[in-house]
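TASK: fixed-backbone design
INPUT:
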C-alpha cells in the first residue's frame, strides 16, 4: 500500500494566481480553482487537530492507496476548509473506511453516486454549517468546502477522476459537494443523531453514498397524509424505485414538519407510513426496466417496498420557510453510518 505522494511534492512559485494555475496543471483541481496547499496551511490544519500527518484515515487495498491525515489536510486546504472543519472531514473518511470495498465500487460506479454528510450536534454552530434557507444550495462556506474536500480526497487520493477510475455515465452535481446540517431546533422529532443512539451533546456525522436530492413539491396539501402521500408517490417513481429495498435520507421542509407536528405524527409514524405506501409490484418494476426480468407469473403479487425496515428511512429537518417543499435522497448499498466527531480538545 502506498500513499498519494503528489500532494506532498513541493512546488515553488512567487505568484498566487500562478500557484492556482499550477494546481490546475498538476491535475489537483475538480474543475474549480483551489487554494494552493502551502505547507504552513497544511501544518496548521493538522496541529490544531493534534495530528502528525501519518494517521491513516481511509485505505482502498484494491487501488493500493492509503489516504493519510496529511493527504486529507492538503485536500481540505485546497477545498477552502478552515482548520475547525477538519474533524468533520476526518470522521467522514473514517466512517467510509468501515466498508471500503463498497466505497471503492461507489467511487467508480456508472450510476455516479456522491458522499452525503449530515452533521448534528454543537459543531454545527461552531463551524457555521447551514441547516436552513438554501440548505442544498451554495452560499455557505462550511457546507460547500467540507463536501468539496471529500471529493478532492477521492480524486487526488484514489484517482477517482471522470473517465479514469470514476466511470460515472452522466456524472452528478452533488459530487462537487453534498454536506448539510440537521435543523435540530425546528425538528418535531429531535435530532437525527439522537434517533440513532447518540447523546444530544454529541457532535456527529451521518455518512451515506447517495444521489441527487429529489424535491417534492407539495404546496397545497395541508394535512400530514397529503404530505406523506406525495413523498411516497415520489419514492415509487421509476427514477427512485430501482433502489427498492434500500435506505433513504428525507429532508422534511420546515412547513411540512410543522403540519406533521400539529397532527401528532411521530418519527416512527412517518417511517412506517412510508414503508407501507412507497411500494410497487415487482411486475411493474420489471416493465419499467428498473428491475431485471423477464416477468414471471405471480410477479404482480410480489410487493417490493422502499426499505427493509422503518429505521432505514432517516428523517432530518431542513430548509427555509418559504414554500412547502421536502426532498428525498436515495442512497446506494453502502450502509448509512453515524459516527461521533472526535476533536483534539475532547
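OUTPUT:
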Amino acid at each position: 500500500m502506498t500513499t498519494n505522494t503528489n500532494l506532498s511534492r513541493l512546488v515553488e512559485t512567487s505568484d498566487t494566481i500562478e500557484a492556482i494555475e499550477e494546481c490546475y496543471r498538476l491535475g489537483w483541481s475538480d474543475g474549480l480553482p483551489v487554494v494552493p496547499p502551502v505547507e504552513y496551511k497544511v501544518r496548521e490544519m493538522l496541529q490544531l487537530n493534534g495530528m502528525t500527518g501519518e494517521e491513516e484515515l481511509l485505505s482502498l487495498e484494491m487501488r493500493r492507496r492509503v489516504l493519510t491525515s496529511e493527504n486529507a489536510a492538503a485536500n481540505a486546504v485546497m477545498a477552502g476548509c478552515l482548520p475547525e472543519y477538519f474533524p468533520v472531514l476526518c470522521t467522514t473518511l473514517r466512517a467510509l473506511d468501515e466498508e471500503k470495498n463498497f466505497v471503492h465500487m461507489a467511487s467508480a460506479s456508472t450510476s455516479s453516486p456522491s458522499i452525503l454528510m449530515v452533521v448534528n450536534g454543537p459543531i454545527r454552530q461552531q463551524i457555521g454549517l447551514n441547516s436552513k434557507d438554501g440548505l442544498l444550495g451554495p452560499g455557505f462556506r462550511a457546507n460547500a468546502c467540507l463536501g468539496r474536500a471529500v471529493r478532492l480526497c477521492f480524486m487526488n487520493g484514489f484517482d477517482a477522476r471522470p473517465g479514469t477510475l470514476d466511470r460515472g455515465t452522466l456524472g452528478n452535481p452533488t459530487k462537487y459537494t453534498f454536506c448539510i446540517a440537521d435543523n435540530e431546533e425546528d425538528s418535531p422529532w429531535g435530532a437525527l443523531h439522537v434517533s440513532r443512539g447518540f447523546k444530544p451533546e454529541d457532535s456527529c456525522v451521518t455518512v451515506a453514498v447517495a444521489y441527487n436530492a429529489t424535491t417534492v413539491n407539495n404546496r397545497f396539501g395541508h394535512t400530514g397524509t397529503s404530505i406523506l402521500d406525495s413523498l411516497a408517490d415520489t419514492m415509487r417513481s421509476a427514477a427512485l424505485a430501482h433502489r427498492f429495498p434500500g435506505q433513504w435520507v428525507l429532508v422534511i421542509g420546515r412547513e411540512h414538519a410543522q403540519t406533521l407536528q400539529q397532527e401528532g405524527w411521530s418519527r416512527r409514524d412517518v417511517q412506517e407510513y412510508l414503508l407501507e405506501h412507497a411500494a410497487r409490484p415487482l411486475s411493474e418494476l420489471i416493465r419499467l426496466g428498473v428491475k431485471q426480468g423477464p416477468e414471471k407469473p405471480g410477479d404482480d403479487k410480489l410487493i417490493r417496498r422502499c426499505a427493509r425496515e422503518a429505521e432505514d428511512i432517516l428523517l432530518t429537518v431542513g430548509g427555509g420557510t418559504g414554500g412547502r417543499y421536502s426532498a428525498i435522497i436515495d442512497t446506494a448499498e453502502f450502509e448509512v453510518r453515524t459516527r461521533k466527531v472526535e476533536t483534539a480538545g475532547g
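COMMENT: The two ends are 31 Å apart (CA to CA).
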